[in-house]
């Protein structure tokens, strides 16, 4: 056998060995590549969140329709109430979060995903992310397209993209059947600046309707149509209690006496413009037991009422509406409009507002053209002056005067010293005719107290107490009196 013949098997064997070695190396490389490709995906599947927390009603409704209950670690407290949440039946038995704004307590639950619906940059979101909690935040939807985006984001985040698509398809189908415009706004967006939610919640219309920003939008329309609410038909309250003087003064202009169950005792004092008109009505104090006994269908309160009293009304499930802004003429218009909604007398309220505008224009027309603006200050018996963001400040401006307290940077009602008052040297001081519990009224004190003598002889403008503190449509009479005395 030649040398070449003897070496051929060896060459063949070496080639085979190299082939199999290369093949094994390729298989190893492929295995590594496959592992590199598959592992993150396998890990992603295994990391589908199973300890999910939802912090808002809308994300509660989405989550409850997307995942099994055992994957939900906590939902907002309101989700368990049928009047607040369309998925309340599915929420029964699930843990609820009382403090949805406490990031520390939420983080202590060790969720693997927190879903929330609020504008960006909220303190809870920032704190949760800082502590390493995975957060999905979606913007509150303003229209149907936004609802689709929000639902898609939530569905994908919990690994249920297909379910999300199905829910969106069902929502769109129902909206088409209801023949709604494609650019329909969500209820909170549509209600912005309106008082209709106030009206609905206290006349049996569940707040879940006008709070809805989820795929349950079609349910809101079906529910409203069942209640004949889409035509704007609202039951008018028949047993109204007014606990605020200003609101009571508006109320008696809008509804007949038989619809008023009671008014606060302040309506019978010298501060009231309606003392004669409440004769024959029940008079009461801020007494929760008496109010409940009268079985009112609407209670009108003010934010300056004691907080404990307002809380008692809430705990007693009394249908109370609180008015919060009494800082000027514009708030009076807004309160009248709101009250018109509440008592079902919008047309009367609008007419009252129109009359106010007309009378104010007529009064201002009596101010001499080119007359210098008197420098004035409003002074109460306790030394308190009215600065900016007060009804007096607007009255002074409408009366062609300068409010010195506002010009000095005072806001709201602020006590000032006699020395400060002397330094201002006002042309006129506006006071109340009522002594406000003092032995002497403010007009007498300014004339008799020697500490005020350096003021010289400023004009004392005296308003009746019912005008001086008025926060209703009767403010027009206060303006009339102020203009007459400042521009005799």
According to CATH, the fold-level topology of the largest domain is Rossmann fold
The domain count comes to: 3
End-to-end distance:
143 Å
Determine Rg (CA atoms, Å): 35 Å
| CATH architecture level-2 label of the largest domain | 3-Layer(aba) Sandwich
For the record, the CATH class of the largest domain is Alpha Beta
**Total number of beta strands:** 16
Oligomer: single chain
* Average pLDDT: 82
User: Are there runs of 5+ residues with pLDDT below 50, and where?
Assistant: 1-12, 34-46, 228-233
CATH-wise, what's the superfamily of the largest domain?
Answer: Nitrogenase molybdenum iron protein domain
| Helicity, as a percent range | 40-55%
Biggest β-sheet: count, sense, barrel?
5 strands, parallel
What is the beta-strand fraction? 5-15%
Strand order of the largest sheet: 3-2-1-4-5
User: What is the global morphology?
Assistant: elongated
What is the count of DSSP helices, taking H or I runs of 4+ residues?
Answer: 22
The SS-based structural class is alpha/beta
Quick synopsis:
This protein has 488 residues and is α/β, with parallel strands linked by helices.
Q: What does the model show?
A:
The protein is an alpha/beta fold. The protein folds into 3 domains: 52-226, Nitrogenase molybdenum iron protein domain (Rossmann fold), CATH 3.40.50.1980; 240-359, Rossmann fold; 375-486, Rossmann fold. 47% of the residues lie in helices and 12% in strands. It contains 22 helices and 16 strands. It has helices at residues 3-46, 57-66, 88-91, 103-108, 123-130, 144-157, 161-177, 187-190, 196-201, 207-211, 217-226, 245-254, 288-293, 307-315, 329-343, 346-364, 391-398, 404-407, 418-424, 442-448, 465-468, 475-486; strands at residues 52-54, 72-76, 96-97, 113-117, 135-138, 240-242, 260-264, 283-284, 298-302, 320-323, 375-378, 384-386, 402-403, 413-415, 428-432, 459-463. The chain has a 5-stranded parallel sheet with strand order 3-2-1-4-5, with helices on both faces. Strands 8-7-6-9-10 form a 5-stranded parallel sheet, sandwiched between helices. Helix 3 links the parallel strand 2 and strand 3. The protein starts with a helix and ends with a helix.
